[in-house]
Amino acid sequence: MSSVASRATPDDPRFAVRRMTPSDVETALDWAATEGWNPGLHDARAFLAADPQGFFLGTWDDAPIGCISAVAYDDAFGFIGLYIVRPEWRGKGFGMRLWNAGMAYLGTRNIGLDGVLAQQPNYRKSGFVLAYRNVRYQGVASTEDEPVDGVTIADAGSVPLERLLAYDTRMFACPRPLFLHAWLAQPPGDVRALVALEGDALRGFAAIRRCGSGHKIGPLFAHELRTARALYRALVAGVPGDAVFLDVPESNPAAVALALEHDMTSVFETARMYTRAAPDVPLANVFGVTTFELG
């Protein structure tokens, strides 16, 4: 630890909390990569689109030492993420100052987060209650892309955006049009989004994006396991031999089964917690979380 960090306290006027610039968000995601969270290459733009005011940076003499995101999706729901303090500045109260800034910004909304399991007691002190666990699975992409009878897999762009937004809203805690539009607008070579159709009915939606290491699938929403399987296989067939990651709600046994049947192994877990009742989301249709940072 540097001599400055060892003596620093969060009430020192040299410490300040301010909103992040786009460049700051890139820095925060670099820190997240160092922590092993493996963000997507273009996550910053989509994250900022969700709520440009919801990202806070802690600085010491204007140098960044910590961060947190507190995204207000609407007047009723928000999500905490990207909660990082640089190692040499930890254990001194700087993280709490950041936490308080994010929580104050979100106010009386129902707030969600995906926290490391060991931090659950601390989150409970702020009013968070465990809803379920999410499990990150890692595997290797194969070229197996077997069709499923009655299910047509198509590019997400073939469906009107309004229809896709309506489907996404049923699967998430609230509408998130700004985020979803930016999520799908990543460079074509770094993201691919697909839908599953049965006749005219939209039965699934999924995306895969390039990360610092391999590719992450998220979201992966589907009417049932066979549809999720068809979407998963179509996505990974485009990145054969690469590492792939899928963040699965443990409370959906079919999602766990999907990961295991493709020889994926558990590498990380989070506690999904909320300050109020868990949103009325059909977890049986959630086979892959969009992102731990923003839900």
Automatic annotation (TrEMBL):
The superkingdom listed in its UniProt entry is Bacteria
The Gene Ontology terms for molecular function here are: acyltransferase activity, transferring groups other than amino-acyl groups
N-acetyltransferase domain boundaries: 15-149
* Cross-referenced CDD domains: NAT_SF
Q: Point out the signal peptide segment.
A: none
What Pfam families does UniProt report for this protein, alphabetically? Acetyltransf_1, Acetyltransf_18
Please give the InterPro entries that the UniProt record associates with this protein: Acyl/Acetyltrans_Enzymes (IPR052729), Acyl_CoA_acyltransferase (IPR016181), GNAT_dom (IPR000182), YitH/HolE_GNAT (IPR041496)
PANTHER family per the UniProt record, alphabetical: SLL0310 PROTEIN
- Name of protein: N-acetyltransferase GCN5
User: What lineage, starting at the top, does this entry show?
Assistant: Bacteria, Pseudomonadati, Pseudomonadota, Betaproteobacteria, Burkholderiales
